[in-house]
Amino acid sequence: MFRQLLLGSVLLMQGTFAYGGAALYHVAPDGGSWPCGGASSTCRSISEVTSNTPLADITIRLAMGNYTGTAIIDASKFSILNISGGWNTDFSHQACNPESTVLEGQVNSSVMHVTASAFTTIELDLSCFRIKGTLTTSRNGIDLSAYGGNIVLKAQQLVFEHIAGIALDLYSEQGGGLDVALQKLIFRDAYQPEGSAKWSGGAIHSSGYGGSTQTITLDNSLLYENSAMQGAAIQVRAANPAPASAATIDLFITNSTIVDNHSISDGGDGGAIYVIASDASQATVHLKNAIIRGNDIIGVARDFNISSFDTAIATVNASYSDIGEVFIFGSSGVYNDNGNNLDVNPVLDSRYHLADNSPLIDKAQCGYTIFNTYQRVAPYDDIDGEKRPGFGVISGCDMGADETSGGFCVPFKTPAGKVGIFCL
Question: What is the pTM of this model?
Fold first, then answer.
């Protein structure tokens, strides 16, 4: 017993404690092997920490630089795991520029693989780094697999690029659950070749089976130039092969831009998004203030494919969005135009931001009131951190991830009692 306590003390001495009681570990490209983790005795990788720490609630800070390897994270070991990049060499300052901290997986392996078996739950918070591939060697970006357990993910200001596989793979079965919040992410050049193990969902692949549930929010994000056979940017698939119970997936896309994605097979579906449900399951995509345009299947315009079979229901609900070509296949695929949608050229610049003459400026919904209570729809700032019209404002926000107005905006009441917006 004394030996075990002494060993635990030595391991704890390597890190310091972050706010809230989580142990704080420091990682740098020139770090060492375990025991490690102090600001002056850094670890060399995320996996060096996750494979060795005896603690369940930890924070990892990544110094700027390049890292190679795979971190395997088991929810039976961790309850809370926070990982952030962009830290300087002495960890006294963070600059949240995802380009400065780069994680690259090993061949045929993901950068990060998280699993949750039955009766386990993990909360995962990721920010300020880039997941990078080469397009020549097969590897995924981040895999989440809920096998009866639960994974809660909050990811913000990440970049996924050049991945010859799925950038973000979300899988659930056996009654497991995924609660995923994605904010200010960029997915570019993910490539899911035909004939690979999973040839759909180049950027985001969501698949739920066997009584599992997934709730995913995608806000202020940009997905472009991704390729796959089906759902080049996103695939959502819900099914429940007998005798399992139905699976349910809800994806909420708000103020995101999904353009120039390509299905690479003439038998493919969904140049941008493919929604499919079978058996008795449900897959639903909810669009608000989004841009889904200019995606194709080998040069033929196709932004959405909605497919459902048996008694399943696949549904897309859209409002205040710029939507291109929608194709419905199967017995009960549903597309609901809930109003204020457009079908126009968004007029984007070379960075996929709105040009000054874009018809989507001021066409989105900022919020609404119900029983005299204000409900916000659009995020308060955009993908670049520029402010959108503020609290209390109903209209005047822009569609997509970019807000053109910027500046400081305040609401005011008109003589008629309506809310207006004034920006400096």
Answer: 0.91
